[in-house]
Write a structure and sequence with these properties.
- The chain is built from twelve helices and seven strands.
- Helices cover 47% and strands 12% of the residues.
- Strand 6, helix 12 and strand 7 form a beta-alpha-beta unit.
- The protein is α/β, with parallel strands linked by helices.
- The chain has two domains: 63 residues, no CATH class; 209 residues, P-loop containing nucleotide triphosphate hydrolases (Rossmann fold, 3-Layer(aba) Sandwich).
- Helix 4 packs across helix 5.
- It has a seven-stranded mixed sheet with strand order 3-4-2-5-1-6-7, sandwiched between helices.
């Protein structure tokens, strides 16, 4: 049993890295004759699929806490953290009195610094404003997360819009209980950077600029991929998320240089320890 489990774990690891994963017969007893191998292989394959299904079904439970943290403004609209996103919204509104801030993107130097959390929660509190029409776009065409965070099950997404398969109206979804609209990612294409840099993408942004009061892009990390830089050229500005005690100064400087510092509206410090009682609310 232990050998079978090890073989399955190895197969899952190889599949995750793009390798060709197979569960070979030596994981069980060797078939006494060649004619028996197909039946044994078929049973092993069905058993392996069943175990893999159980492993996959457990993943949402393991990630539920992380997902809930990313949408805290939706679950706990009066929390201290949500108030910080309202403060961010107010500062952006102040900037909007001096310069256009109708389309902005949120990114980070590296993965795991909280850019999706910032994008989702800023979009939620912005949509709380009376009469404001807000669209959140997942522009991470490689590892999209927003549909999972907000519990959406899209039939179409950004890739289908950019390839002309559907119109934008067919891909946009509304988040239950809010006025927030979302353009998620349904299919991850083989040419994400090229799609984001296409004329269709440029035309789409201009169309959405006319239809919404605020459009927020969640982009991939700056230092890992060219996608954030591509999207930044289509926006009025960028917000860079920095994780306290983790993001290095060199990584921040490198990200700012890539994005063009003149496009940076500000930085969000994520993961800092704050005494909520100090504020009296």
């Amino acid at each position: 049993m232990g050998k079978i489990y090890d073989a399955l774990r190895k197969a899952e690891a190889e599949r995750a890295t793009g390798g060709t994963a197979t569960v070979a017969a030596p994981a069980l007893e060797r078939a006494p004759a060649a004619r028996q191998a197909p039946a044994r292989s078929g049973r092993l394959s069905r058993w392996a699929d069943r175990v893999r299904g159980l492993l996959r079904s457990a993943e949402p439970m393991e990630g539920a806490d992380a997902i809930n943290k990313r949408r805290i403004a939706l679950l706990h609209p009066n929390s201290f953290v949500t108030e910080q996103f309202r403060t961010l919204r107010a500062r952006l509104d102040s900037l909007a009195a001096e310069r256009p801030v109708g389309v902005l993107a949120i990114t980070s130097a590296l993965a795991g610094e909280g850019k999706t959390t910032a994008a989702v929660n800023l979009a939620i509190v912005s949509a709380m404003s009376v009469g404001r029409k807000v669209l959140l776009i997942d522009s991470d065409l490689r590892r999209p997360k927003i549909h999972d965070v907000l519990g959406l099950r899209p039939e179409f997404g950004l890739a289908e819009v950019l390839t002309g398969q559907v119109g934008v109206d067919a891909a946009v979804l509304k988040v239950d209980g809010t006025s927030l609209e979302v353009l998620p990612v349904r299919r991850t294409p083989s040419n994400p950077s090229e799609l984001l840099a296409s004329e269709r993408m440029r035309n789409l942004v201009e169309e959405l600029r006319r239809s919404y009061d605020l459009v927020i892009f969640d982009t991939p990390p700056v230092l890992a991929l060219p996608d954030a830089k591509i999207v930044s050229e289509l926006t009025d500005g960028m917000i860079l998320v920095v994780r306290a005690s983790e993001t290095s100064r060199d990584d921040v400087d490198a990200a700012l240089d890539i994005l063009d510092r003149r496009r940076i509206l500000g930085l969000v410090l994520n993961g800092a320890e704050v005494n909520e009682k100090r504020y009296g609310y």
